[in-house]
Amino acid sequence: RSIPMDVPIPPGTFYRIQLAVYSAEVETGTFKGITPITGERLPDRGLVKYYAGKFSRYSDASSALARIQSRGFKDAFIVAWYNGKPITTHRAKQLE
Question: Between the CA of residue 89 and those of 4, 43, 57, what are the distances in Å?
Answer without folding.
Answer: 24, 25, 10
